[in-house]
Amino acid sequence: AEKLKADGDIDPSNIDIFVKKGEFQTDRYTLKGEGTEIWEPRFTYHGFRYVQVTGFPGTLTLDNLTGEVVHTDFATRGEFSCSNELFNTIQRCARWSTLTNYHGIPTDCPHREKNGWTGDAQLSAEQTLLNFNPMTAYTKWLADFIDVQRPSGQLPGFVPTGGWGFNWGSGPAWDSALILIPWYQYVYCGDLNILRQMYPSMIKYMAFLTSMAIDGIVDFGLGDWCPPEGNENLKTPVALTSTAYYYVDTVLLSKIASLLGDCERAEAYKKQAVQIRAAFRARFIDNDAKAVGPNTQTALACALYQGLALPEETGWILERLVAEIEKCSWHLDFGILGAKYVLHSLTEYDRADVAYAIASQETYPSWGYWIQQGATPLWEDWQGESSRNHHMFSDISAWFYKGLAGINPDPEEPGFKHIIIRPNPVGDLKWVRCWHESLYGKIVCNWERTDDQFTLKLEIPANSRATVLLPAEKPEQVAESGVPIAKSSRVEIAGQQGRRLCLKILSGSYDFRIGNFDW
Fold first, then answer.
1. Average pLDDT, rounded, for the chain
2. What is the mean pLDDT of residues 326-353?
3. What is the per-residue pLDDT across 245-286, written as a single tens digit (0 to 9) for each?
């Protein structure tokens, strides 16, 4: 079990469900009685935190038990640590929930269901690709999508399926794993073959999704699953999040078609995306009322993150989003979709300080609240009433890499051929250590700040280059390896982006120092 009763007995009540017959996670072994006997199950595995053993001859101690960790073999491809110990713990929990939920397929939990829920997987895919090397495992699982897809293009909410999940448990936010995970594999690892392999299924799915749309709006499927309080559909309408994924899928499919040389479809999908965006905006964005749908954190961040807001609207949407977060005393108020939208949107629009405030909370609802309750992997819901080993809220780990350390891929030059370095020294964060093993080699991004100085140490692998967006407003503040950047032959000053100084660098090791630092 993963919980205990008040008297110390195991309490499997939160996961002992969906059992058709027999006992839940129970093994019985009859000793032969001669010598050392070793047994372990070969065709199942158990997810647990606590083990209860009865009938043991003598006094049972921890030395009598060995727990064997079983999961698909993922090589580590990245690590993140920082001066905020809470974030280090959340990072460990995110990695652990990812590993313990990958057994041939990315499962939702390792005990109750063990199903390959597609929404969970697409939401956690970026952090999985930053932390590990799941390429062959993902490629195998995506082949299962082809097998299970109906002739109409319809997909179930989990893959593979025993026959259900097509009419409940699916929807664009889940089904988009068919498009998003191959796209992430391309962006992070430069794999064009996976796009080619999945392209026919993507076309079929897009045809199905279009058949379900009414005037450009898609209103079916699961929405912002597991918000802190209340029904996710009542907080943020499914039509809002589903239509947003319909738009994103169409935009990406246009790009994929172009990459694969299917120019006619690329243009058709591009035009369709414009129509979907217009339908979304007409239905959900009200400039006069300064509202995106019901103005939940998820709805507002969705318009920013999914690219549905016009440039002239992003200012008031961001302002309204920050105000909604402040109303919650800088706490989150979103489910699994908003967990991806909010932190990244705030960071993209230069309010990483607000994202940091949300991520740093230790009272309910927050990732830190889970840690305070003793969580070791991540949980399924903010209250901790359901599964206590789920990876669907794990994209915060991707935010650590991208939003805090500042290592970002460039979709225009995939596989980290071109790296965008954008560190965010916010809150009380004093230092960050981060690396990722890319297709071209190891990327290292370490930074540290004191009261009046910021230091950024980079390693850019061979055959790659980087755009560095430094938290500095004046070139004269910055030196590289002791040389003012204006005089450095290794650094090109490419202008200013907002408050940030934009630099262009090639492969190599760099040591940037910003004096008179005030950020």
1. 96
2. 97
3. 999 999 999 999 999 999 999 999 999 999 999 999 999 999
Query: Hey, what are 463's tokens?
Result: 């055959």
Q: Percent of the chain at pLDDT above 90? A: 90
Q: Are 107 and 121 in contact (CB under 8 A)?
A: no
d(CA 454, CA 427): 14
Contact assessment for residue 386 and residue 336, using Cβ atoms and an 8 Å cutoff: no
- Asked if residue 233 has pLDDT above 90, the reply is no
Q: What is the 3-state secondary structure (H, E, C) of 104-168?
A: CCECCCCCCCCCCEHHHHHHHHHHHHHHECCHHHHHHHHHHHHHHCCCCCCCCCECCCCCCCCCC
Q: Is the peptide bond preceding residue 365 cis, with omega within 30 degrees of 0? A: yes
Q: What is the C-alpha to C-alpha distance for residues 210 and 493, in angstroms, rounded to an integer?
A: 46
The answer to whether 186 touches 195, Cβ cutoff 8 Å, is yes
pLDDT of residue 427: 96
Residue 242, φ and ψ in degrees, nearest 5: -70, -40
Cα 488 from Cα 125, distance rounded (Å): 39
Torsion angle defined by CA atoms of residues 361, 367, 369 and 375, in that order, rounded to the nearest 10 degrees: -150
Does pLDDT of 88 surpass 90?
Answer: yes
Cβ contacts of residue 245 below 8 Å, gap of 6+? Answer: 172, 173, 176, 218, 306
Supply 428's token pair.
Answer: 């009380």
Provide the whole-model pTM.
Answer: 0.97
CA 147 to chain CA centroid, nearest Å? 26
Rounded CA-CA distance 485/503 in Å is 9
Model pLDDT for residues 38-47, shown as the tens digit of each residue: 888 888 899 9
- 206 φ/ψ angles, rounded to the nearest 5 degrees: -65, -35
pLDDT at 232: 58
In sequence order, which residues have a C-beta less than 8 Å from that of residue 140 and are 6 or more positions away? 104
Torsion angle of the four alpha carbons 292, 117, 174, 196, in this order, in degrees rounded to the nearest 10: 140
Task: Compute the distance between CA of residue 44 and CA of residue 35 in angstroms, rounded to an integer.
Answer: 26
Those residues with Cβ within 8 angstroms of residue 242's Cβ, 6 or more apart along the chain or in another chain: 171, 172, 173, 218, 219, 220, 221, 223
